Amino acid sequence: MLIEFVYGPQNVELARAKQLIAAELLSANQSATVQNVKQYLPLQNLVTISAAKDGRYLGNHHYKAPQQQILLSPAHSSLGYLKPAKISGKWQISMHQHCIASKLVMAKIIISELEEYDELSQY
User: Fold this and answer.
1) Domain of life, per the record (predicted)?
2) CB neighbours of 99 closer than 8 A, spacing ≥ 6?
3) Within-domain flag for 121
């Protein structure tokens, strides 16, 4: 199985990021100078995908790339995921928001079945 996952934006809009970082610094009793704020830029949204099959958790990779291809097969699975014994069965794919600081974030998940001869199944 191939999961194509896209989300965005990866980086929080600059003005919003500066505002949020400054507020966090002040709440931690730290100075919110321009230099202090800059050291935390860019502020990034982080969304990940986890997979479970037949009630067994297979994993989640906390990978910041906003475009990902996750392969799950008995021969090979992407980093962070266990290999399923077989593809048939009941799957659960979950999206997890670790940090959503932008006012608007979009995400798209496309799930495809791979044939044994498919070139991606070689990875």
Assistant:
1) Bacteria
2) 44, 45, 46
3) no
Range of the domain at 53: 2-112
Six token digits for residue 31: 């100075």
Is pTM beyond 0.85? Reply is no
How many other β-carbons are positioned within 10 Å of the β-carbon of residue 69? 14
Sign of CA dihedral 75, 80, 86, 91: negative
Tokens of 119: 């070139």
* 7, amino acid identity: Y
* 117, part of any domain: no
Q: Is residue 25 part of a domain?
A: yes
On the CB side of 78, how many CA atoms lie within 13 Å of its CA?
Answer: 18
Segment 5-46, tens digit of pLDDT: 999 999 999 999 999 999 999 999 999 999 999 999 999 999
DSSP lists the bridge partners of residue 77 as: 72
Residue 58: in which H helix or E strand, if any? strand 56-60
